[in-house]
Design goal:
Layout lengths: L6 H19 L6 H8 L3 H7 L3 H24 L5 H18 L3 H5 L2 H6 L1 H27 L9 H21 L6 H16 L9
Helix pairs in contact: 1-2, 1-4, 4-5, 4-8, 5-8, 5-9, 5-10, 8-9, 9-10
Length: 204
C-alpha cells in the first residue's frame, strides 16, 4: 500500500491540478470530480482538504498571489531606476502568465465575475497591489523629470496593466502563437515613449 501523502503536500498537488485543468478545460467547465481524477482521489477526499469548491478556488488565488508578489519583489530589487523597475514589473507579469496560462481565463470566468465574490475580491486586491507599485514608479519618473508631470500616476499604472491584460487576451485567443515577453517589451517601449516629457527636436 502506498503511503498517504501529508495533508499540505496533497493540498498543494490539488491546487496545481486545479490550475492546470483551469487552463485545459476552462474555469467554468472545471469540476471537483475532474480535479479528483487528476490527482487520483475520490471527490469526497477533495472536500476533506477543501470544504467547498469556493475554498479550492481561493487556494488557487493564493497560489497565484504568492507567485506574482514574489516575482514582483524580485523584479524591482535589481534596480532603483523607475523606468527599469516598470519594465521589470511588466515583463515579470508576462512571464508569470506564460508560466500560469490559466490566469487570463480565470480573470474573465463566470466563477470569478458572478459566482465567487471572495475570489473576485482576492484578484481585485492583487491587481490593486500591482497598480500601486506601478503608480509609485510612474511618480518617481515624474519627479526625475522623465515622465510628463501632467500624467496621473494611477492612470499611467492603469494603462500599463491594460497593456498586459490586452496582450494576454490576444495571446490566448491567438493560440499562444507568439512569445509574450518580446511582444510585451515592444509594446511597453511604445507606451512609455508616450509618457515621456517631449524633448527638443521631437516631432509634433
Amino acid at each position: 500500500m502506498l503511503a498517504r501523502k501529508p495533508a499540505l503536500e496533497r493540498k498543494a498537488e490539488i491546487v496545481t491540478a486545479m490550475l492546470r485543468l483551469a487552463d485545459e478545460l476552462g474555469p467554468d467547465r472545471l469540476t471537483t470530480q475532474a480535479v479528483a481524477d487528476a490527482v487520483g482521489l475520490t471527490q469526497p477526499a477533495i472536500f476533506r482538504h477543501f470544504a467547498t469548491k469556493k475554498d479550492l478556488w481561493l487556494a488557487v488565488a493564493e497560489r497565484i498571489s504568492d507567485r506574482l508578489t514574489a516575482g514582483w519583489t524580485e523584479a524591482i530589487s535589481a534596480s532603483t531606476d523607475p523606468i527599469a523597475r516598470i519594465h521589470a514589473l511588466i515583463l515579470e507579469q508576462l512571464r508569470q502568465i506564460e508560466a500560469m496560462p490559466a490566469i487570463p481565463s480565470i480573470l474573465f470566468s463566470r466563477e470569478l465575475q458572478v459566482e465567487n465574490e471572495a475570489l473576485r475580491q482576492a484578484v481585485f486586491e492583487l491587481m490593486a497591489e500591482l497598480i500601486a507599485l506601478l503608480a509609485g514608479e510612474v511618480a518617481k519618473a515624474q519627479d526625475a523629470g522623465v515622465f510628463d508631470a501632467g500624467l496621473s500616476p494611477k492612470e499611467g499604472a492603469h494603462l500599463l496593466v491594460s497593456l498586459v491584460q490586452g496582450l494576454a487576451i490576444r495571446w490566448t485567443l491567438g493560440g499562444r502563437g507568439f512569445a509574450l515577453v518580446p511582444e510585451g517589451r515592444r509594446l511597453l517601449d511604445a507606451q512609455l515613449r508616450l509618457f515621456r516629457v517631449p524633448q527638443v527636436g521631437d516631432a509634433p
